[in-house]
Write a structure and sequence with these properties.
Structural class: alpha+beta
Strand content: 25-35%
Order of helices and strands: EEHEEHEHEEEHEHEHHEEEHHEEEEEEEE
Oligomer: single chain
Low-confidence stretches: 1-53, 304-312
CATH class of the largest domain: Alpha Beta
Number of domains: 2
C-alpha cells in the first residue's frame, strides 16, 4: 500500500521530513493555490495499491568463437542461459558456430540482459592504433558454420551505430580479454591506471545514451555466481549484485573479494562510475561500470517508488548507504519522473556544521548522481539532503531526505 503525499507550501515553508522517508514539495499553479487557505496545507490522498506490471526480462546469451576455449565457453553459456530461464527470464541463445552479427544484431535490440562469452579486443593494448571499428565490442563468427579458430570483431562504433538495448539494460562481458582490466593470459598484470582505462573503454559504447545500457559488468575469469538469480532479487543495486561472493570461495577471483577494490569516475561516460575488484596477485578480473546505484527493480521495469517503499513522487533521492558515517564517501542519486531543464542540485546539512550545496552529473534518462565525502567533524544525528530540480515547463520541485548519521 502506498500513499501519494502532496504538500502545498507558501513562501519558504518547507515540508516536514521523517527519517527514512522523502516528501515532495512543489509550487502549485496559482489558480489551485487560490482555492485553498492562505497558509501551508498538507493534502493526503487516499491510499492506492500499486501493481507493477513487469514483463519477463529478455536475456540474450551470446557465445562467440574462442579457439581452444570455445567448448568451455559453450558449457558456461548454456549454464547461464539455464539459470536465466530458471530465474524467470525469456532467453535467446546465439551460440557458435551460428553467432554471426546478422543473428546477434536483431536479437539484442530492446534486450534487458546481454551476456557475451568470447574474445576481447580492448585498449590500451599492443595492437595499435586505438580505434573502435574492431575494439571494445564482440568477436563473432564471420559466417554460419565458421571454425572456432576464426572470428570477426564488431567494435564500439558498430555497437553505438546499430544497437538499441532496453532502457537500463545490463551487459555482462564474460571471459573477454581487456574488458575487466587484465589483458591476455600470457601478459603480465597491468598497472591500475591501464586496467581502469581498459574497463572504461570497453564499457563506453554500451553505456552510450543511444544504446541504453545502465551498467556493464566484466569478468575475465569464471564466476561461481548465479547472476541471473541475483538480478531478479528485489531492492538490490547493481553494485550489490557485483559484490556477490563466490559459491566456491576456494576458486580464485570467482566472486566478490573486496580486499583492495577501487572506485573511480568514468572518463568516457559522463556520470558513470567504475568499480574494480582486483586480486593481490591475479590482477584485474572483475569490474562494473555505469550507474552503480541502478536497482534490480528499475532494471526489471518495476515502479521505483514501490521498490523502495516510498511515496510515489516525481522527484526522489537514493543513497548508497542508508546509515552513513561522518568522514564517509557516499554516492547520492537524484531521480526525476519528468524531463529537467538542468541537473539538480543537492544541499547537504550535517549536524553542527554549515550546509553546503553540490551539483549533480547526468547519468542517463532523468537520473543524476554525485559522490560526496561527508565531513568528519560535527556531531552524530540527522543528515539532511535536499534536492532542487526544475522540470521542463513546470514549477521547481524539491525533495528532502533525512538519514541517521553516526
Amino acid at each position: 500500500m502506498h500513499q501519494l503525499l502532496v504538500r502545498l507550501r507558501r513562501g519558504t515553508d518547507r515540508p516536514q521530513a521523517r527519517s527514512g522517508r522523502q516528501w515532495l514539495a512543489t509550487f502549485m499553479a496559482a489558480s489551485f493555490v487560490a482555492t485553498v487557505a492562505a497558509s501551508a496545507m498538507t493534502v493526503t490522498l487516499p491510499a492506492v495499491e500499486v501493481h507493477a506490471a513487469v514483463a519477463k526480462p529478455r536475456a540474450v546469451i551470446i557465445v562467440g568463437p574462442s579457439a581452444s576455449s570455445t567448448a568451455d565457453f559453450l558449457r558456461e553459456g548454456e549454464l547461464f542461459a539455464d539459470q536465466a530461464q530458471a530465474a524467470g527470464m525469456s532467453v535467446t541463445r546465439i551460440f557458435h558456430p551460428r553467432a554471426t552479427w546478422a543473428r546477434v544484431r536483431p536479437a539484442i535490440q530492446d534486450a534487458n540482459l546481454v551476456v557475451y562469452f568470447g574474445h576481447g579486443n580492448g585498449w590500451p593494448s599492443a595492437y595499435a592504433p586505438f580505434q573502435e571499428n574492431t575494439k571494445n565490442g564482440f568477436g563473432l563468427n564471420g559466417y554460419e558454420g565458421a571454425p572456432a579458430g576464426s572470428h570477426v570483431y564488431y567494435g564500439g562504433n558498430v555497437i553505438r551505430d546499430q544497437v538499441r538495448l532496453a532502457d537500463d539494460a545490463v551487459v555482462i562481458l564474460y571471459r573477454s580479454c581487456y574488458s575487466a582490466g587484465n589483458g591476455e593470459d600470457s601478459q603480465p598484470v597491468p598497472s591500475k591506471s591501464v586496467a581502469i582505462d581498459r574497463v572504461d573503454n570497453f564499457a563506453a559504447s554500451f553505456l552510450h545514451r543511444d544504446v541504453g545500457a545502465g551498467v556493464v559488468m566484466a569478468y575475465r575469469t569464471k564466476q561461481w555466481v548465479d547472476f541471473a538469480a541475483q538480478l531478479m532479487r528485489p531492492r538490490r543495486s547493481m553494485d550489490d549484485v557485483f559484490k556477490t561472493p563466490s559459491a566456491q570461495p576456494g576458486w580464485r577471483m570467482s566472486g566478490w573479494m573486496g580486499t583492495s577494490d577501487v572506485y573511480v569516475d568514468s572518463d568516457r561516460t559522463k556520470g558513470a562510475r567504475q568499480h574494480l575488484d582486483p586480486h593481490a596477485s591475479g590482477g584485474y578480473s572483475r569490474a562494473i561500470t555505469g550507474d552503480l546505484g541502478l536497482t534490480t527493480d528499475e532494471w526489471r521495469g518495476a515502479d521505483p517508488s514501490s521498490a523502495n517503499d516510498e511515496p510515489t513522487e516525481e522527484l526522489w533521492i537514493k543513497t548508497s548507504d542508508e546509515t552513513p558515517g561522518r568522514g564517509q564517501t557516499v554516492t547520492f542519486r537524484v531521480v526525476s519522473t519528468q524531463p529537467l531543464t538542468s541537473s539538480p542540485t543537492l544541499r547537504i546539512k550535517q549536524p553542527g556544521l554549515t550546509a553546503y550545496t553540490v551539483s549533480t552529473s547526468w547519468i542517463r534518462l532523468e537520473r543524476y548522481t554525485t559522490t560526496v565525502r561527508l565531513a568528519a567533524g560535527g556531531t552524530a544525528g540527522t543528515l539532511q539532503l535536499t534536492a532542487l530540480a526544475d522540470p521542463v515547463g513546470g514549477e521547481q520541485a524539491e525533495v528532502l531526505l533525512e538519514l541517521p548519521l553516526h
